[in-house]
Amino acid sequence: MPDMEHEAPDRAILLMGPTASGKSALALALHERLPVEIVSVDSSQVYRGLDIGTAKPTRAEQARAPHRLIDIRDPAETYSAAEFRADALREMHDITAAGRIPLLVGGTMFYFRALEFGLSDLPSADAAVRRRLADEARALGWPAMHERLRALDPEAGRRINPNDAQRIQRALEIHALTGRAPSELGRAAPPAPPPFHFIKVALMPDDRAALHDLISRRFQDMLDRGLVAEVERLYRRGDLNPEMPSIRTVGYRHVWEYLTKRINYNQMIARATAATRQLAKRQMTWLRRYPGVQFFNAPGAGKGPETECLEHLRKTVRPVGKSGVIIKSAGAGRPANNNSHNGPG
């Protein structure tokens, strides 16, 4: 019998990658072969009604492999990295208590970092301050707001992309509430130690031109499946605006601009695909700097990422901790004690 006081921590798998790299398909394939339950790591898929443009798993896919932390917020609400971390850890403990492995899948890289390394003790969101900052951004533009951040906190200004409106707003909000630079506050509080042992894998395309082509074709497919109508339903609610995190999502803000006649249809397509390519570039840059990641090529010639990733996980994950998990070989089917959890939505 192992010494319970010195029992190794439960394992969790982090499956990361840029947008359009095939993460969701790989997660579904791994769910068929491993005793895993999927937890979404996507700051846009948390919103109800944002389905097509976020590439949210379909109802059929969710019936096949339930995803937790999807459809848990109304688009008028905010959702912070701190809230994600608390929600994700709760779901992960629930999964391991059932004897299974959490498989966290997505492309919101800051959420992965918050999960693994913790967050500083920063003030909660303040709706009044956020509205004031959003009003200023509408008048001045987010690049000007980024310049303000650079003046107040040069370190945060260098770290945050000038087009990342959500993080610019949060950093300025923290400064407004505390009078201190967010970077200074971040150094003041040591991060919480990770409560799990994280096995980090990522899909990384080696052909950028092919990825760009895929992004273009995927956005056109979203339009064909009704993205404009989906955004129009959100617009007709009357309580949403383009400064809200939900509507700032890539693709949604561009269709919103088209519906409000700020741009034409072709401009909408061009701007949305360009923004998605920029997002993918930022995600890949972040991943290359993230420690301990095992990279796999996005789908292509030779052995697919499903086979290679499965082989890697079979070597890496062992029966540890309370979960007592055992990975089955490819083609062996799902375990008999399927403790799937139908997550939100």
Automatic annotation (TrEMBL):
EC number in record: 2.5.1.75
Annotated Gene3D superfamilies: 1.10.20.140, P-loop containing nucleotide triphosphate hydrolases
Cofactor or coenzyme needed: Mg(2+)
Catalytic activity: adenosine(37) in tRNA + dimethylallyl diphosphate = N(6)-dimethylallyladenosine(37) in tRNA + diphosphate
Positions bearing the site annotation: Interaction with substrate tRNA: T108, R130
Binding site for ATP: G17, P18, T19, A20, S21, G22, K23, S24
InterPro entries for the chain: Dimethylallyltransferase (IPR039657), IPT (IPR018022), P-loop_NTPase (IPR027417)
Region described as Interaction with substrate tRNA: spans on this chain: 42-45, 166-170
Superkingdom of origin: Bacteria
BP GO terms, sorted: tRNA modification
Keywords: ATP-binding, Magnesium, Nucleotide-binding, Transferase, tRNA processing
Residues binding substrate, per UniProt: T19, A20, S21, G22, K23, S24
Recorded GO MF terms: ATP binding; tRNA dimethylallyltransferase activity
Entries under HAMAP family matching the protein: IPP_trans (MF_00185)
Family that this chain belongs to: Belongs to the IPP transferase family.
Subunit comment: Monomer.
Protein name per UniProt: tRNA dimethylallyltransferase
